[in-house]
Amino acid sequence: MSTRISPPGFTIVEILIAIAIIGILSAFGVPLGGKILANSRLNTGAAALRSSLTLARSRAMANPQVHCGLFLNPGKGFLLFNDVNGNGQYDSSGANADVIYQPLSTLPKSIDFDSIPAAWNKVILFRGDGSARLGGAFLLKSTSTNRKKRVVVSKESGEVRITQ
Question: Which pTM was predicted?
Answer without folding.
Answer: 0.78
